[in-house]
Amino acid sequence: MALAAKPDMRPANPDFSSGPCAKRPGFSLAALQGALLGRSHRAKEPKARLAEVIERSKAILGMPADWKLGIVPASDTGAVEMALWSLLGARPVDVLAFESFSEGWANDVVKQLKLKDARVLTADYGKLPDLAAVNPAHDLVLAWNGTTSGVRLPNADFIAADREGLVICDATSAAFAMDLPWQKLDVVTWSWQKVLGGEAAHGMLALSPRAVERLLSYKPAWPLPKIFRLTSGGKLIDGVFKGETINTPSMLCVEDALDGLRWAEGVGGLKALIARSEANLAAVAAFVAARDWVAFLAEDATTRSCTSICLKIVAPWFTALDAAGQAEAAKKLASLLEKEGVAFDIASYRDAPPGLRIWGGATVETADIAALLPWLDWAYAQVSAAHVAHAAE
Length: 393
What we know:
Layout: H1 44-61, E1 68-73, H2 75-87, E2 93-97, H3 100-112, E3 118-122, E4 139-143, E5 145-146, E6 151-152, E7 167-170, E8 187-191, E9 202-207, H4 209-217, E10 231-232, E11 235-236, H5 251-267, H6 269-289, E12 294-296, E13 308-313, H7 316-319, H8 323-339, E14 355-359, H9 366-392
Parallel strand pairs: 2-3, 2-4, 4-7, 7-8
Antiparallel strand pairs: 1-9, 5-6, 8-9, 10-11, 12-13, 13-14
Helix pairs in contact: 1-5, 5-6, 6-9, 8-9
């Protein structure tokens, strides 16, 4: 590719990180002026704000009325770990592992909890495991969207409606950007800093009636840290699902979460949020279709994420490099974009194949995606030319 002049347009917001993600359009710190700082989170008004996060989240997501939703420590990771340690062990478990975080859950199940009746169904980056191999008599642990691979589940057809096991779903990069099939899930987790661009530290844990029943009828063989406990004396600690958090939350983060939720309601709710994310994916897809140097990491178009949009470089000179050479070239490409101030934090995840990862969640404007894309061509041309020049020496 011949060297080209720098594009004229620049994204108004160059934040394309996959977490923490871009703030909602029009955000400023003025939106947080009402934060109840210096107050106890257990006082009436702060507790009401926490409960408001729960109720607004349930309403936007269309969560069934009989589900319970709570705010828990340690972001999505804490929410998933709480579910794994509290619920697993009652029956065999299948884990879908097809990218870094789902591989982490598999590691917890096999090496930390040391469950003997565990199967890990794996797939390389860009692919999904054999979904037909899932056993409905087993518990199932999965990520709805692979944040580090850009691969999402296309549907829930492989999950039996009359399943015996529970389905624990890490939905941190899917919630508020994809339709979640609540009737096929039993535990759903996410964090504030993904699709609605909130600040970090807090996770959301949603439980179906079946999951609650498991909590009340099954006691794990291992001790549970206080920070994981959802029951006491054989009863559900129901306050967790009414704004009584296990640990001390940041009321500044709570105010920010509410700001994001109100924005989501203002733009049209879940349907509009999904449409915004899908428009971002469509813009990238049109770009990729017209180029021969770049492709989606997700091989099947029906599995391509509209939030964590992962791209790989497929130019012959790049694929001929060894792993270290590919990693260095991809890093240079991302560094050029950051140096120009047009895209921050879009290098692929450290465990993923070298490439780019562009966040396309609902807080990202499609106009900013469109302004970014010509810069990918420009940066690629610089890296490619440098490689050719080096090879000729």
